[in-house]
Amino acid sequence: MANRLVQTTSPYLLQHADNPVDWWPWSPEAFEEARKRDVPVLLSVGYASCHWCQ
């Protein structure tokens, strides 16, 4: 499984580039794949916190 986030420049998305999840960045291709597979799109709103905030 490829994690497509390794190709992004977003610092938030890069935090998840090593996750064993088939993440897709926001793109027309992501929505087309969801349509083809007839699956919902689960959207991350970009929440992240540092260890000082916990």
Automatic annotation (TrEMBL):
State the superkingdom: Bacteria
Provide the protein name: DUF255 domain-containing protein
Which InterPro entries does this UniProt record tie to the protein?
A: Ssp411, Ssp411-like_TRX, Thioredoxin-like_sf
> Where are the coiled-coil regions?
none
* One Pfam short name: Thioredox_DsbH
Spermatogenesis-associated protein 20-like TRX domain: residues covered:
3-54
Name the species this protein comes from: Streptomyces rhizosphaericola
